[in-house]
Amino acid sequence: MENPLPHSRPIFLLVACGLFGCSDESGSNASSAGSLIAGQSALDATPDDPPDALALYVPPTEDETFRCVAGERTCYSAATSLRCDPSGEGYAVETCEAGKACDDPSGLCRLQVCAPGEQVCVDDRLYRRCRDSGTGFEDDLLACPDAKRCVHGACLYCTPNQPFCIQSDATALCDAEGDGYRNPSKCEGTDRCSEVTGVCEPVTCKPHKSECVGPASYRYCLASGTGFQQETSTCASGQLCVDGQCVFAPCIPTVMLLVDASASMAAKWPQVRSSVVDLVEVNPKALFGLTFFPTNAGCKTTTTPDVPVGPNAPETLGSWFDSHPAIGGTPLASAMNDMVLGAEANFGHYGGALVLLSDGENACGDDDWSDDTGAAAAARSLYQDFGVRTYVIGFGFKGNEQQLEAIAAQGGTGMSTFVKAGDEQALANALGAVIDDFKSCISTHP
Fold it and tell me: Domain 249-436 carries which CATH code?
């Protein structure tokens, strides 16, 4: 941006003298003649005199007429801000409130958020310095010299009185000044020195290997292999983390398993558990969630899944089967309704698949959602409004088949009826067919 004061050389000299005073050759301070109000004599101005807030400030200029750009701001001093008048003929003067200072280069009075000259670490090598105004930190990053790292804003060899790694397989204790160490020792066996703790620890992961820590975030194993980084990274927009990789979200099989947990499923529970665990294990790049219905011994259902959709381990889903016995009724229609109500939270923007697994027809309630039309309408809404396709599997099904057929026909899968499974192998095949219906593609980290 061009300097708002046209003839910079005289002005900068005057402002500098106004802020700090000027020294003659003998070292004494000479008074400044800068920072004058229009019509003010140079003899009237001193470095300690701020511009008159009630008058228009006109900087000294070699031209006959001074001009500035209306609305632009600049700093007169740490406590005084100038804003060009709409006429462009001078500056309106603003004195900063207590706790604020004029921020260079914006020219605005801003809160002081750091001590002038204060240094803070950005990482173990880089740091920033607070501006002289205290209104923020300088944009430029400063680097510590080689072999030193940033500790509490200072460049030190190590953190005083703390253990640190002197080699990949050796540790020592930093001295009190942070410029040396004592008590060096080698790690035992295959242990390595951890970059995080500075002590020898067992190797627990493959160096630099990534793992997912959330639906769209990941972290890397430390170079020592003694654990994972504390910091996490976020996948690019439109991507999710699967099996340690960022994957374009629409390419990821995203599946919610809606499982009938009524009393009639008790004898089949071990088979269902085994099939679900196997399904998750052979599809590590798919995101699975799990919702049981009912949630109690009666007919209660929920919009909140027992296991939210995500990169869940097979054991995670298996443990839920172990702690949730099959009891209660079959509130199938209510469960489908709750899937609609929770679709946005459970599936997000890109939709996915709902796999309804049941052994019987709806047996709870008599409202609009408890008939075939209502349950089918829920499946249709999931597909049309949220991009969620509903697959229906009848496992040892007994009851009115028209109900499951109606749901399947409206699920957006192109199937006119539900998939029948009479034993564990047939159930495993049916679940596998659902995943195969998705097309997947994998990318790498950005």
Answer: 3.40.50.410
